[in-house]
Amino acid sequence: MKKFLALLLTGVMVLSLAACGGKKEEAPAETPAETPVEAPAEGGGTIGVCIYKFDDAFMTTYRNALQEILEGKGYTVTVVDGNNDQAKQNEQINTFITQGVDALIINPVMTSAAATIIDTVKSANIPTVLINREPTADEMAAYDKLVYVGADASQSGTMQGELILDTANKGDINGDGKVSYIMIQGDPENIDAQLRTEYSVKALTDAGVEVEQLNLTRGDWDREKGQTICANDLAQFGDQIEVVFCNNDDMAIGALQSIQSAGRKVNEDIYLVGVDALDAALNEVQAGNMTGTVLNDAKGQASQAVECMEGLLAGDTYAAGEQSVYVDYVKVTPDNVAEFMK
Ligand code: BGC
Predict the structure, then answer these.
(1) Residue 192 beta carbon below 6 angstroms from any ligand 1 atom
(2) E-assigned strand segments in 83-237
(3) Nearest-5° angle of CA 96, CA 101, CA 105?
């Protein structure tokens, strides 16, 4: 485990050297065009962290990691809950600005609000790291003291498809020549939901496997919704369902409850995959109740976000088109699950 962590950290560090290095600020010109960012006081600065909602399993791990790393480095940190309400989060950002924070780390409520958020932090000249919900490169290009830290969602989708391709019958449990699946989607406004939905299935079709989508329903990343959607689909489609794709683990855990209530057995008569590698999902993968999941490295992303933030505070700037920093996803199967468990 220690070795794995060390490898993981090395991986993150290598990536950060390559990816988190915005341009160092050049010697100030005689008349600086912009007010330089004020360096934080000795022994740390004040950091505002905005989370889209606290009641999200993955973002809970993420925000706890952020808080621990920042406090460990001597920063004064305030983490606020946006309650899934963009208007509320906008107010929180404005309050942080009025309070004079040195930097912001923001997990937007709505990706579509990114342009407004970027405009606000730019006007206040606050170095900002956006996390988890990726805006477009064009939107980010408006402000060079801004970076996005996340993961390439298409990679996690592809890995979910590969988990199915790696099964003995490549997902075709009933041998009818096609893989019949249901898709339980996150919030479709979010690019992670869009790309995981697309790329999980694309991995199958790229491998020449025929697919049939029985249903696609938005579950908003939520466990209870995952359970209800899966129960309804099992009632409607029964044994036709061979694969349950969930855009995240929380929905997969919900789906598993319905699969078990319906008397179905994962890896025997149905496959189930998620994303995140939440502790609960790791337990289910180990127990054979989930086919697999994909590590969405909350801790790695949190340390990358802090590193990028410190770079910005030291004067780094980012060129347009180079403002996204990705931490790799990792496929989790019964074979390697133990490495990810505490
Ligand atoms: C995670 C989800 C989470 C979402 C929040 C995704 O990357 O996989 O579990 O709910 O981010 O935006």
Answers:
(1) yes
(2) 103-106, 128-131, 146-150, 179-185, 211-218
(3) 75
Please tell me the distance from the alpha carbon of residue 37 to that of residue 26, in angstroms, as a whole number.
13
The strand pair at 324-326 and 146-150 is best described as parallel
Closest CA to 67 of 77, 59, 58: 77
Q: How far is the CA of 59 from the centre of ligand 1 (A)?
A: 7
One-letter identity of residue 298: A
For 261-329, list the strands marked E by DSSP. 271-273, 293-295, 324-326
Query: Could you tell me if the CB of 296 is within 6 A of ligand 1?
Result: yes
Task: Tell how far the Cα of 297 is from the centroid of ligand 1, in angstroms.
Answer: 11
Q: Which string of b and e fits 206-225 if b means at least 16 CB within 10 Å?
A: eeebebeeeeebbbbbbbeb
CA of 225 to the centre of ligand 1 (A): 14
Please tell me the distance from the alpha carbon of residue 219 to that of residue 229, in angstroms, as a whole number: 7
Indicate the length of the chain as a whole number. Answer: 342
| pLDDT tens digit sequence for 245-273 | 999 999 999 999 999 999 999 999 999 99
Among 50, 58, 253, say which to mutate for ligand 1: greatest number of ligand atoms within 8 Å of CB: 58
By C-alpha distance, which of 119, 81, 73 is closest to 309? Answer: 73
- Per residue in 146-173, pLDDT tens? 999 999 999 999 999 999 999 999 999 9
